[in-house]
Amino acid sequence: MAKKVLVMLGSPRRKGNSAILADQITKGAKSARAKVETIYLHGKTIAPCKACLACQKKNSKGCSIKDDMQDLYLKLIEADAWVIASPVYWFTMSAQTKIFMDRCFALPAYHKDPFRGKRIAIAMTYGDEDPFTSGCVNALRAFQDAYGYTKSLIVGMVYGSAMDAGQIRSNKKVMQEAFDLGKKLVSE
């Protein structure tokens, strides 16, 4: 049976550099016969978590905020693997990606242990030449900490420097790494 991959794009640019890396991961996953669905977070209505803890109460019916995350919760649970792609904005992941991450706090209200065994690939791009001074490492560490805590498996991370839209395509090494990560994401 084909693996299901859900791709979350956290950039306001639909064809920006992080989206291009995510597309390469997608191509790799499809080459291994995976079914892929892509979600543009920027176009979704996703409110920040309001810390009401309704999702954490016994017999919870889920998140109290009724917005586009309601559809995403079910897709996240059904997927075998996730791809999360984000540019670096102000030394970490984009606001769109961070709001998505925060709202995943409610995911256990929809399914028992929804993160365990989930296979995850991360794609990041940044304008600086260095992943440390750009803040990319801050975002990568946030993903490592969050998904380590949830017992998910980060299969791999690809990241590279690219300021202008489409510039990441010229980094052949990172583009190949992204394709290979897509295959690995659904093959093991």
Topology:
Elements: E1 4-9, H1 17-31, E2 35-40, H2 69-78, E3 81-89, E4 92-93, H3 95-103, E5 119-126, H4 136-149, E6 153-161, H5 172-187
Parallel strand pairs: 1-2, 1-3, 3-5, 5-6
Antiparallel strand pairs: 3-4
Helix pairs in contact: 1-5
Structural class: alpha/beta
Low-confidence parts, pLDDT < 50 over ≥5 residues?
A: none
Number of helices: 5
Shape: globular
- What oligomerization state is this entry in? single chain
Full CATH superfamily name: Flavodoxin domain
The radius of gyration computed from the alpha-carbon positions, rounded to a whole number of angstroms, is: 16 Å
Report helical residue fraction: 25-40%
| Beta-strand content estimate | 15-25%
Question: Terminal Cα separation, in Å?
Answer: 13 Å
> What is the chain-wise order of helices and strands?
EHEHEEHEHEH
CATH topology: Rossmann fold
Tell me the number of structural domains.
Answer: 1
Architecture, according to CATH? Answer: 3-Layer(aba) Sandwich
Q: What would the average pLDDT be, to the nearest integer?
A: 96
Name the descriptors.
alpha/beta, Rossmann fold, 6 strands, 34% helix
Structure, explained:
The structure is a single chain. The mean pLDDT is 96. The protein is 34% helix and 21% strand. The chain is built from 5 helices and 6 strands, in the order βαβαββαβαβα. It has a single domain (4-187), classed as Flavodoxin domain (Rossmann fold, 3-Layer(aba) Sandwich), CATH 3.40.50.360. Strand 5, helix 4 (136-149) and strand 6 form a beta-alpha-beta unit. The chain is an alpha/beta fold and 188 residues long.
